[in-house]
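Reviewer comment 2.1 asked that we show a complete input and output for one of the modelled complexes. We chose the 4'-deoxy-4'-aminopyridoxal-5'-phosphate case, as it is the one discussed in the main text.
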Amino acid sequence: MSRFLTDRYKVLKPYTPGEQPQDKKYVKLNTNESPYPPSKTAMRLAAEELERLKLYPDPDCTRLTRELAVTYGVSEDELIVTNGSDEVLNFAFMAFCDERTPAVFPDITYGFYRVFADLNGVPYREIPLLSDFSVDREGMKAERGVLFIANPNAPTGIALSASEIEDIVACNRERVVVVDEAYVDFGAESAVPLTKKYDNLLVTMTFSKSRSMAGARLGFGIGCRDLISDLVRIKYSTNPYNVNRMTAAAGVGALLDADYFCENCRQIIETREWTARELAALGFDLTPTRANFLFAKSDKIGGEELYLALRERGVLVRHFSGERIKEYNRITVGSMAEMQIFIDKTKEILEVNR
Ligand code: PMP
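Response of the prediction step:
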């Protein structure tokens, strides 16, 4: 830290991303990426943009916005396209929260919410998840701040139904409710249709998981026209060219290959259920996940110990040290072959530990 950094940022505790090891090849089940490549059309359209890189991209992402509007049944002015969904989430903190309008989110959820709050000088309240790790809906409803709800939640994978989300949104008409649907495509219900009815609902989504494009950085938000125009105002005040040419083109391709997307989601759900059964048979306790990851705790080995033993055997999962969840690991659902390796290595470790 230099002596020039302002007090405001001196206290900032940046987000710690999952490991992205560059040295050795791991079975990488730690950052919820897709095991499948981007769609062929996505790759072809991105490659076609290479020769146009000397030109700035379209700041409105016109073609991508049009395709997204068709895919999600909304109009183009009800959409904003961003550099990963992290960016639209940050825009939401900038646009809707301030010293007098705190952010509210569960105590166990996506770790970036806390960082975005601090970055923007926004106070926040954390509402503890209930003992079964589900979101405390009544606790959230009782708050008057801007609500951030990951649905399915991370790292638990537990989802609220659309009607449960509606109940929260309807109870808080004077504050924005942000529903982060990064993992919605793996079996949860989307709140997008509710954006027609509630002007205080913003839904955020990403191409990073179900559309196999984590490296491209592409996300988007859906809400009523006025909410979106607030976010566009922030975007044009920070970086109008937030989505590069190749990424925007790849996004269009991914949407056009809808069958490929559906098949990948179906496959991941099937592999998740297989892995859950295998883990349960080994005595693991699992949350009822609707995401592309599992959240599991062994009755035979501690969370960190298992994480380290797997790592030593070339399998990376994600361990969090928070008090309530330190005995768990979050395991991304990879390909069937990867999950077979994960299960084999886990069995080996439990065997050694007996
Ligand atoms: N929301 C949740 C709940 C996440 O887990 C992630 C991924 N780490 C994101 C949003 C952001 O993903 P991205 O910026 O890649 O769209």
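Residues 84-86, 110, 150, 154, 180, 182, 206, 208, 214, 219 surround 4'-deoxy-4'-aminopyridoxal-5'-phosphate (CB under 6 Å). We note this here for comparison with the apo prediction described in Section 3.2.
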